[in-house]
Amino acid sequence: MDTPPKAIAGVSTFLDDRLGAGSFLKRNLRKMFPDHWSFLLGEIALYSFVILLLTGTFLTFWFKPTMGEVMYNGGYEPLKGVMMSEAYASALHISFDVRGGLLIRQIHHWAALLFVAGMVVHMLRVFFTGAYRKPRELNWLIGILLLSLALLEGLTGYSLPDDLLSGAGLRITQGVILSIPLIGTYIQFFLFGGEYPGEDIISRFFTLHILLIPGILLALITAHMILMWVQKHTQMPGKGRTEKNVVGAPFYPAFMAKAGAYFLFTFGVLALLGTFAQINPIWLFGPYTPADISAGSQPDWYMGFLEGSLRLMPAWEINLFGTSGGTVPLSVLIPALVPLGLIMTGLALYPFLEQWVTGDRREHHVADRPRNNPHRTSIGISAMTFYGVLWLLGANDEISANFHIGLYETTMFGRVAVFLGPAIAYFVTYRICLGLQRKDAEIVSHGVESGVIKRMPNGEYIEVHTPPADDILAHMRGKKEIPVIESAADREGIPPKGARSLIGRLRAKMSKAYGTDRVPLEEEHGEEHVAVGAGERKEVH
Question: Which ranges are annotated Basic and acidic residues under compositional bias (predicted)?
């Protein structure tokens, strides 16, 4: 057997003697990772964040985060001689005069959109499969904080070029800050360095964007990965998979090879988008001046739901203490705080509310199929519908103009749909989940259609059913009953201690509604199949 070179062996022995690196690597390089396509969704966000750091570092070499006015004399002819901020002039310089600058700028912007999108779909996967349950509640909260910071990071980066589009978005941000009672004015003066637009907002956003928020994101992502590593990954139900094992491939070499290829694939897609799909052409918008506005301006997709809530909200306000008091513009304050607050607060509390309702304090390492917890899935789809209606109506002017629908009618439709849509989505999703459960129960009980038609001695024609494949059957049999809190009274008519108070009775009713299995897996469907020959079955009609 070949021995390693002395230089490598010496360094390895030195590190192993002092750090115990050998045993650490030996133990962790063989860590098993489950193999399921949905587990790659979180990696999209991780790799996009790495690309953001790399491209952002490149851009900081040339970007000047100041609002001092200069006359543009760069390579873009239509704007030569126009007065603009140094921030906007440097963004144009990166786009037209720095070799590869426009490509890197566009990759950075596309990576930002993909970063947030990756986090959202990863969080949806975790929610719908119940992967947030014990012992992963802390990691779920870290994920919500990461998403919140990613939205703030996107807002600060969106505003840095100081073009007319980003300036219009910044004006909305300033209006939201001013709507906060008592402290809104102070926050605005502190952030902008005086009256709007001030002279400090770009430099302060730049510090937040490249230093503070990325540092916090990096620390939280590290904590997120360490917790995932320690707690082990969840896995989808299947053959040989239990709460006490992990079925998959080892970290080295299988997962490392897959992760490396997936990173290159993600980078390649972003490079293609940055090359062929134009995004944020700031030279077409011109420099920002408070007196100018732009028609049809839209924020990036992840902020679209806030834009929609602002457009749908009626013009309500409250005058405190009569005419001598302050005015609270509910038409700005509610859209800015309530939708995002509802979604983020609901996400943060859901693992603990579900645990309270079901009384389930067990550890869960095998994920649920979304259909097997219909109430959770319906709640998630309702929240997505709520978000989707607000996001869609953020472009109510574009919808009205392009589809020739009155703007007033479009707005009224949105005001109704934002409440009615989630309710309809809940009902439809719940019925779909039950239907899918019945289909699973039928396959487990009767098998699958083989396509083989047989004629019986009595002249009857039947289709032979065959048992499903073992892995498919194990996947379906992975369904677990949702726990329900005991609420039945004993022989003397006395209910359990936890179900005697008003809250206890409410909890028991919610638990029964949430956890009752309306489609048991072994449910019978009509007459039983009878054998036809060796290993074959027929349906008796």
Answer: 519-541
Strands (E), 441-506: 448-455, 461-466
Q: Residue 161's closest CA among 300, 311, 301?
A: 300
Q: Which two tokens stand for residue 344?
A: 């983020």
Asked if 72 and 79 touch (Cβ cutoff 8 Å), the reply is yes
CA-closest candidate to residue 311, choices 290, 297, 324: 297
Both tokens of 19, joined, read: 């750090």
Q: Which residues contact 262 (CB under 8 A, 6 or more apart)?
A: 40, 43, 47
Q: How far apart are CA 167 and CA 292, in angstroms?
A: 10
Phi/psi region, residue 240 (left: phi>0; alpha: psi -120 to 50; beta: rest), is left
pLDDT in tens, 391-446: 999 999 889 989 999 999 999 999 999 999 999 999 999 999 999 999 999 888 88
Closest CA to 515 of 345, 350, 356, 343: 356
Tally Cβ neighbours within 10 Å of residue 1. 2
Residue type, 261: A
**Helix then strand then coil, % of the chain, to nearest 5:** 60, 5, 30
Using a cut of 0.85, tell me whether the model's pTM lies above it: yes
Amino acid 163 reads D
Q: Give the C-alpha separation, 19 to 14, whole Å.
A: 9
Task: Quote the CA–CA distance of 123 and 503 in Å, as a whole number.
Answer: 31
